[in-house]
């Protein structure tokens, strides 16, 4: 929740005439605060005795921890490759790797979903929102 509140505060501090500069951090802040409250209320109810006694959330097993580490690693590579590969290609590779590694889709479905997600992201961020994104060596 603290990260959501920080995001909301920073969104309000943005001094840009373009409303889109404030929109993303504000929306993210609202979502993070709502999710934090959604996790906090059941936890408080359990502590007050309304939930099953003595039940604590289970820590992820080793496989789940490896998936989380893998996800952060791929995300770091995405961010590092974004200026060089460009938004469209980096996003397509990011989605492709995640769908193959974490999903159970066939290659045909993986490629179809990757193309759809990459093109949709390109249209939303570049054409609809007019955001400047790296074009990379392809110039796209």
Task: Walk me through this protein's architecture.
It is a single chain. This protein is mainly alpha-helical. The chain has two domains: 2-47; 62-128, no CATH class. It is built from five helices and no strands. Helix 1 packs antiparallel against helix 2 (20-47), helix 3 packs antiparallel against helix 4 (87-102) and helix 4 (87-102) runs antiparallel to helix 5. The two termini are 37 Å apart.
Rounded to the nearest angstrom, the distance between the terminal CA atoms is 37 Å
Shape: flat
Beta-strand share of residues: under 5%
Number of strands: 0
The largest pleated sheet is described as: none
Order of helices and strands: HHHHH
In round numbers, the mean pLDDT is 86
Enumerate how many helices there are, as a single number.
Answer: 5
Give the helix proportion (percent range).
over 70%
Q: What is the domain total for the residues? A: 2
**Uncertain runs with pLDDT below 50, 5 residues or more?**
none
Radius of gyration: 19 Å
Quickly give the structural class.
mainly alpha
Short synopsis of the structure:
The chain is mainly alpha-helical and 140 residues long. It has two domains: 2-47; 62-128, no CATH class. It has five helices and no strands.
Features:
mainly alpha; 140 residues; flat; 5 helices; 73% helix
Compile the SSE list and pairings.
Blueprint: H1 2-13, H2 20-47, H3 62-85, H4 87-102, H5 107-128
Helix pairs in contact: 1-2, 3-4, 4-5
